[in-house]
Each structure stands twice: as C-alpha cells, then as structure tokens.
Write a structure and sequence with these properties.
Number of helices: 6
Shape: rod-shaped
Strand order of the largest sheet: 1-2-3
C-alpha cells in the first residue's frame, strides 16, 4: 500500500519478479483527500489482506477491489473519527466536572458527624473531615459553604500536601475570619459565630 503521486490517490503496488527491482502499480484509487487518507490508513493496517486484494484485482479487475475496500475503509474511518470526537467530548466533560467541587454534610448515625468535598466526576470525596460534635461540624460549614471559589484550590492542597494540611488551612482560615468578624460586629453569639453570615 502506498500514497500515489497525487496526494489524494492510493495505490496497491507489487514488486516485479524480473530481478530488476521494478514496482508495478496493480490498483489505484483517487478520491477526496480525507477519504484517501482513510482508505490508505485502513488498508495499510491490514497487510495480511494485501495478497488477497492483489488476487482479486487479477481475477476481477480494479473496480472489484475498489467496491470491496473503499466503502469499508471510509465507513470505518468515519466511525473512528466519531469515536475520537466522542472521546474528546467525554474528556472535556470529565475536566469540566472535575472543576466542579461540592460541599457535603455527612450525618451517618454510625459515624461521627462530618463534611466532605467531592468533584463532580468522582464517586468518592477527595477530602473528609470528622468532628466529635455536630455543632463543631456546623461551625466549620457556616464558613466553608461560602468558600466555593476556593474548593478547586483545596483539592490541590490535598493532592500536594495531604488531608491534614487542608484541615489545618480550613480551621485556621475560619478562626481568623471569626476574629475579624467579631471586630466588625457581624457575628452571632453561641458556638457558631457565623451561623447567620451570608458570605461576602
């Protein structure tokens, strides 16, 4: 199999047995450039068929081979391109979902209260934080639910430094904000100073 002298041509060539190294073109097909690319690729991937195709040309002529392989090659090429496009779209969707991180409140009675951060393309959270008491969890959630713009960065912290590093960052940032909010007089009393805070 080879590209013809023209970019949109495909050829089946055979070495002559006359000892002179002559190459004979036994079949040639021309089509649109994209179609020629698909036909050449499809036929080149099937070297075990070349002798059969040569025999087909010898017995029935070039049109018989064209009828047999060209339609199959172009159909396979189109399917391959459709599959590749679907894979690209699926990968783009996975990347989009990976960038969507949601906060979940965990209230399983068999476990301590907790919270979790999970990407849209995953079935398990990439970060889980557990607490002794529900109010402790709710105190953190009061602050954390307004930090959605930082969730992707939080995942990067987990990947690079681990869960403990993110837990420390969350608690430190929350406490610093609570102190600053008290000074501004925008906190409520009790164990959850940001309970009625609506974000900024």
């Amino acid at each position: 199999m080879a590209r013809g002298d023209e970019a949109n041509a495909v050829e089946l060539r055979v070495a002559s047995d006359d000892g002179r190294g002559r190459i004979d073109v036994v079949w040639r097909w021309r089509g649109a450039q994209d179609d020629a690319d698909m036909v050449l690729e499809w036929m080149a991937e099937r070297p075990e068929e070349w002798r059969l195709w040569l025999r087909l040309v010898q017995l029935f002529g070039s049109d018989a081979l064209s009828e047999l392989v060209v339609h199959a090659a172009i159909a396979a090429g189109h399917l391959r391109r459709v599959d590749a496009q679907r894979q690209r779209e699926a990968e783009a969707e996975r990347e989009r979902l990976h960038g969507e991180v949601d906060l979940f409140v965990l209230d399983d009675r068999r476990k301590r209260p907790g919270l979790a951060l999970e990407s849209g393309d995953e079935s398990e959270p990439f970060f889980t934080m557990r607490f002794s008491e529900r109010w402790e969890r709710d105190r953190v959630v009061d602050w954390l639910r307004w930090q959605t713009d930082s969730f992707v960065a939080f995942r990067a912290i987990v990947e690079e430094q681990g869960d403990v590093a993110l837990e420390r960052k969350i608690l430190t940032s929350m406490r610093e904000f609570e102190v600053a909010s008290r000074k501004r007089g925008i906190t409520s009393g009790g164990r959850r100073p940001l309970r009625f805070w609506r974000g900024e």
